[in-house]
Write a structure and sequence with these properties.
By secondary structure, the protein is of the alpha/beta class. The protein has one domain: Vaccinia Virus protein VP39 (Rossmann fold). It is built from nine helices and seven strands; from the N terminus they run H-H-H-E-H-E-H-E-E-H-E-H-H-H-E-E. A seven-stranded mixed beta sheet has the order 3-2-1-4-5-7-6, with helices on both faces. Helix 3 (31-42) crosses helix 4 and helix 6 crosses helix 9. It is globular. It starts with a helix and ends with a strand.
Amino acid sequence: MSKGDQDFIPALRFRVFTPFYDTIQSWLVGDVHYKRLLVERATIQPGQQVLDIGCGTGTLALMVKRAFPEAEVVGLDADPQMLKNARAKAAREALVARFDQGLASELPYPDACFDRVLSSIMIHHLKTPDKEKMGREICRVLKPGGEMHVLDFGKPKGLYGKLVGRILRGFEETDDNFAGRLPGIFEAGGLSVQETGDFQTFFGTLTFLQGKKP
């Protein structure tokens, strides 16, 4: 296991919360709602190969598989316990999806093998160099014309969003998000990127990003 694997931050930052991850995400964060919006924006077609980076317990990946049974869905996460939970959820529903252990900055896949790459509320955990590596890796594994669809914290909008952003500033992982630097990071990786919408949550402004590989 590489140093990066050893240093990853568990979901919700503390291992003790892992068994309660889905409950917290559903009731406190409302992740099903925004992940459904992300899936709708991805316009996935039958037979396409879809990668969910930072898949956690597989909520988004399995949502894609339910909506598009003919798509080939792969989830990637650094946390083996989260992946164990994701595989168990897939087995309970008899859904066919693959869950791999790995890092967003070192995707364990060949060039040009995915039509869509998705990620939700994960990128703000990464330091700037790893965000930059992730951008290059996403471009590498996307097929020509393939798309990235990301939802994460963005530049704060509105009074409440700006207040929350001010409270959470000062960390390298989140500063890129709150300063609105994510589009530029992914463009530097080789994608054409645009913001396609945002909405306010209790935790701040979430922004949708769409990137396309030439």
